[in-house]
Amino acid sequence: MFDLTFLCDDMFQGLARWLRAAGYDALCSPGVPDGELVRRAEREGRILITSDSRMMERRIIRSGRVRTLFMPRGLTNKEALAHVIRELDLKIGKTRCMTCGGVLKDVPKESVASLVPPIALNAYDDFFRCAACGKIYWHGTHWESIVAALRRAAKKK
Q1: Could you tell me the sign of the dihedral formed by the alpha carbons of 9, 14, 20, 22, in that order?
Q2: Where do the domains of the chain lie?
Q3: pTM for this structure?
Q4: Using one digit for the tens of pLDDT, what is the confidence trace for 29-87?
Q5: Predicted local confidence at residue 157, as pLDDT
Q6: Contact of 26 with 8, CB cutoff 8 Å
Q7: What end-to-end distance do the CA atoms of the chain give, in Å?
Q8: Helix, strand, coil shares of the chain as percentages rounded to 5?
Q9: Sheet of 104-107: strands edge to edge?
Q10: Angle at which helices 13-21 and 77-88 pack, to 10 degrees?
Q11: Please, are residues 105 and 128 in contact by the beta-carbon 8 Å criterion?
């Protein structure tokens, strides 16, 4: 389930962030040529997400060596997330770093006191640090809307 990893093409940078919110390791490499994107997906065992029909014609993809999910064009990021969840029967898990996809670790409030805005420090008790990039997170006012959007995306149609 959560061992699936993704590589999104340029068109799906926002989707990569939503997949991270849903608990998945999802990367996006803007500006990387298609050939390198496909090779990276193969090398790292990632599912390539694209709407590029020309990329889908590559032998390495047609043969199944690179697992690929072809996305319909024109979807919003949340619609694209719902599509991926339905197509791959994904479950929603613990959110990853929205910036880099790293695992978020609980950290004591005191350890981040000088790193977060005073208003957040006064309002919240639970803080998280990305094990990869060090970014600090907390479940602020926006958190409920993120959770609600994830629940809507995960609803079966």
Answers
A1: negative
A2: 5-88, 104-154
A3: 0.90
A4: 888 999 999 999 999 999 999 999 999 999 999 999 999 999 999 999 999 999 999 99
A5: 59
A6: yes
A7: 20
A8: 40, 15, 40
A9: 104-107, 127-130, 136-138
A10: 60
A11: yes
